[in-house]
Amino acid sequence: MGNETEPGTCYVVHVKDRWTSLLDDDTTLHMVMDEIHAFISNSTTTHPEVTEEKDLLEYHRDNDDFRVCDKHDVRRVEFTPAILTTNKTPSPPSDTYFLKLFFGCIVFCFVSVTFLHYVYVNKTPKEKGKTTEDETVAANTVWNITDSPDEHEIPVLMSFVNADNSNSLQMKFKTCMFSMVKLSSAPIVLYVAGDKISQGIAESIVAPLDKKKVRLVTLDVDALGREMEGLLHTMQHHFSYKGGSYYSHALFFLSIAMHKLAPPTLRRLIMLDADLQFKADIKHLFDLFEKFEPSNLVGIGYEFSPVYRNVLWKYRNEHPGTRLGGPKPDGLPGFNSGVLLLDLEKMRASALYNSLLDAVVMKEMSEKYFFQGHLGDQDFYTLVSFEHEDMFYVLPCTWNRQLCQWWRDKGIQDVFDDYFSCDGPINIYHGNCNAPFPSD
């Protein structure tokens, strides 16, 4: 990292050149924070006394600082994230820019409030207290019973939001869809959970595909989020950096509550990330449900990076020789939720699984393993697997061959390939952290 730590010193890591104000997505932000975390946790290996600091796992955003601990003798460390130095350095916005933006917001708010007030006062008393029939339907109907798959269709759900702001996301979705439909020997019913604009984009991408091979059903992601509001609060607290972060959005926790959200006629479901490329028939993936043991509720593949080795650094220091966070085949490296098989029927019937959704239970488990995640539902499944490993069917690595190698040069080169290796013909490539797919 280029910085040396000292024992017993509390650090406020300052990101050089106001980098954080220029980050355009929280995926990059969480990578920066992983760098800082690895920098500090590596320091504790050299200086054990540093672990006496209040909480090395909590970072607080404050004027572009990430507060690493909570002592009076604070030392300031200048820090340039490696993830950003590979890109061209952008120029920071000027003070004039922010002043114009501030006054523009004031004018916009004034005009908006004036307009809304005018509309409201011109309503009749009856209209002011009335909810239209369409609004009621939108609020209460997320998933129609008629949207369930027939006996021959393979049910697949993908999240697709803010697509109008990302040509890259649209291309990823298109690559995934075209490769999946082309190779499928069975018809697919595709559920797309997204905002209205993204739903329209998804419809335009799917439109050229053979209607006999794919049927599109759109779901309102905000309505789904409202239906899981209580659970969402619990999960956000333990499995995202902050309330507004990329991985705190409702869509990153949908799979955990899907057995409650989907109609009872939907018994099994495949959930996929958009950044996938199929190399095999999705029916063969769906057939893996038949390999589930009676105790298996969720099919999920291992994580191909040592991210959970890093998250669990404190637990691993206190429990030498633990399997948790260790590489396959003997360790439990944690899970990656880019490809999921959900046995919704079993999830609904499992008293154990549903008890794990309780806020108190999650708090106790998180504290036991010193676990503060930041990757949404896969953090939940990883944490649960520490005590209920038999709840999961581990997918063959070839069905979620992740390509991200961000962790390769983060000081653990000697073990990286133990996590990253995967032998055999690949069925699905997963281009996580914007990794490119191999050329044919």
TrEMBL record:
Swiss-Prot/TrEMBL keywords: Membrane, Transmembrane, Transmembrane helix
InterPro entries the UniProt entry points to: Glyco_trans_8, Nucleotide-diphossugar_trans, XXLT1
One family name in Pfam for this protein: Glyco_transf_8
Residue ranges of the TM segments: 97-120
Domain of life: Eukaryota
Name of the protein described by the UniProt record: Xyloside xylosyltransferase 1
Organism: Batillaria attramentaria
